[in-house]
Amino acid sequence: MTIFCMRACLSGAAFLAGLGLNVAAQAHDELHFSHPLIAESPSPDTKVRLNYLFLDVDEGGEKSNEHEISFEGEYAFSPSFSIEVGVPYAIVDPNDAASMDHLGNIDVGFKFANFAFSDHGVLLGYGIEFILPTGNEESGIGNDHLVEIEPFFNIGYKRDALEVVAFTSFGVPINQDQGEEVETEMGYNLSFLYHVSARVSGLLEFDGGTVLSGEEDGHTVINITPGVKVKPTDNDNFELGAGVSFPLTANREFDVRAIFSAFYHF
Asked: Is the pLDDT of residue 177 over 70?
């Protein structure tokens, strides 16, 4: 069953890749967006990124600190198509128990862009992401059997120094254990980025998700993240970013989340 599902996933990705390359051949102008801290950039890019996340978590009185270091690599085969891979490693440090660490779920994404409305500063995007079960459920880091398929859609709008990105995804897990409930989820992001100067940009981002089926059907989380990105050197390809997230809903995945990122674009 797992092999069949993975073959179907790869076949679908290959089909989308073909579509993306066709779009690339038709693209007239390149419209590029700066990468937000939480949301995904709608424009394919060639870059590497190193992230550090810190989360202060309180689940029913059980408090813990979580640390995650992740590496992301993205390669753009054309202005309209890229493949990206994310590899996270997490440490969970409960207040009343020994800390645990493990490789998280690796994700592989195929990202496409449509330049039909680039003259108006609008970039349409879509793609699909596969989240692989390389985690460890016993440690609370990822999972060890579910494969999650996440098609996504996004739109970017750019005018002068302002960049706005809206993003939505639909997560569908496969390869459940016998009797395990299917939990589907919709995720969403909204990012506002303003270039204050050639070297400094301010951000305000919203991210969240709603469970569409399963035990937590209807469970919704929304977070807000103010942040900043800077170019600390004369090399425009190198950027640093930082932000702090706070929950806006009663349901929450953390009390406070901090993110620090280093980007290098090629």
From this structure: yes
